[in-house]
Amino acid sequence: MKYALFFGLLALAGATQAQRTAFEPGQPWPDNKGTHLNAHGAGALYDHGRYYLFGEHKIAGPQGNSAQVGVHCYSSKDLYNWQDEGIALAVAPAGSGAELEQGCVLERPKVVFNQKTGKYVMWFHLELKGQGYAAARTAVAVSDRATGPYRYVRSYRPGAGQWPLGFQEAWKQPIPGEKDLKWWTPEWRTAVTEGLFVRRDFAPGQMARDMTIFVDDDGKAYNIHSSEENLTLHLTELTDDYQGFTGRWNTIAPAGHNEAPALCKKDGKYYLITSGCTGWDPNAARSFVAASIWGPWRALDNPATGPQANITYNSQSTYLLPVAGKKDAFIFMADRWTPKNPIAGGYIWLPLTFEGDQPRLRWADRWDLSVFDQPKPKATTTQ
After folding, report:
1. Which DSSP string do the residues of 299-311 spell out, in sequence order?
2. Structurally, how many domains does the chain consist of?
C-alpha cells in the first residue's frame, strides 16, 4: 500500500513538472520525465558548470537488489532539477560470464575526472554473480564523457602482497590460536587491530565492499572502503590515472564495524561519516576527523541530531557533496533502502554544518542552498 501511495504522489508530481526550488528529503523526486530518480548509493561530480549524479539503477521487486541494468546518470545545473542522461555503465548480458554480468551486485558508483588523462573514472563495489558477498571487490570503468558510456576495465582486491602503513613487524606473523578467538571479545578485537584479517587476505588482496572516492587538493585520489569482513575501513591511494592502486594504504578504525563511508575536507582537515553495520536497517551515523588523510583518525559523535538521530533519519550515508561556488558547503547524501522493492528507495539530502571539529546534521522537511549563506541553517521541521 505504501508503495502505491509513493508512486501515486510521484505521478501527481510528474503531471505538473514544475521546476523545483528546494530539497524535500524523503519525498518523491521526479526527473525531467516525471520519473522518480533511479540513482541509489549515488555519488556526484561537478564538471563544467553542471552536476552529474551516478547511482545504482534498481528495478521493482527483490531482484532489484542485484544489478539488472547498470549505473544510471542524471545531470543538473542547480541540484534540484535533474535531467535523465540514461545508463552510463550497462551490465553485460546474462550468461556472458563477464564480471559485470547481469545479476552481479554493483553498488555505490562514484565518478571523478582525471585532469592528466582527460578521462572520467568510475569506481564501484562489485560482487560476482552467484557468490553473494564473498568476492568483495572494487571495480573501475572509464569514459571520455561524463555521461558515458563507460568501458569496464577490471576489478581488484586491493593491497595484495602489501602491508598497510605503520604495520608492525611482529604483526606479520600469525598468533597461535587466533582462528579460534571468539568474535567481539577483547582478545579478538586486539587481534583484529593487530592484523588478524590483514594477514589472512595478504596474498589474494584485501576485501573491498561499501566505498567512496575522494580527490584531494593536490590531485591525488583515494578509494575508501569497508574491508576485513566489514570490520575495518581501508584507505588506498590510487595511481595517477585513477585506474589502479599505488600499493600505499592504511586502516581506519580497526574492528570499528563501519560501512557507507563518505569523506570531505574543510580547513585542511579531513572529515569522515560512516554508518554501523545492520544490513538494510538504518542505524546511528558515526563521524571521524584527521589532520592527515593517512590518520590518525579521531572518533567523534553521531553527527545527526534531533528526532530519529539514532537511525540517521531512517537513512544511510553515501556521499558528501561539495557545493560549487560556496565555501565549506557540503551536502550529506544518503539513501532510504527498501529491499523488498528497491526501486521505491528514497533520498535524504541535508546540509552538513560544523560545530568546531564536529560535523552536524539537522532534519529539514524542506530546504535550499541559501542555508549555506546563513550563520545557521533555516529549516521547517515536523519530524
Report:
1. E---SB-STTGGG
2. 2
3-state secondary structure of 15: helix
Q: Is residue 50 part of a domain?
A: yes
117-161 tens-digit pLDDT: 999 999 999 999 999 999 999 999 999 999 999 999 999 999 999
DSSP3 helix / strand / coil % (the chain, rounded to 5): 15, 40, 50
Give the model confidence (pLDDT) of 43-73 as tens digits.
999 999 999 999 999 999 999 999 999 999 9
Question: Has this prediction a pTM greater than 0.85?
Answer: yes
Q: Are 66 and 105 within 8 A, CB to CB?
A: yes
Phi-psi region of 229 (alpha: psi -120 to 50; beta: other; left: phi over 0): left
> Over the stretch 258-300, which tens digit does the pLDDT of each residue have?
999 999 999 999 999 999 999 999 999 999 999 999 999 999 9
Mean pLDDT, rounded, for 182-195: 96
Phi/psi at 4 (5° precision): -60, -40
Is the residue at 122 inside a domain?
A: yes
Query: What digits encode the pLDDT tens for the residues 90-113?
Result: 999 999 999 999 999 999 999 999
Cell digits of residue 52? 552529474
- Last residue of some domain: 136, 156, 176? 156
Given 138, 156, 174, the domain boundary residue is 156
Q: Which domain holds residue 289?
A: 258-364
Does 340 reside within a domain? yes
CATH classification of the domain holding 268 = 2.115.10.20
CB 328 within 8 A of CB 23: no
- Grid coordinates of 219: 590531485
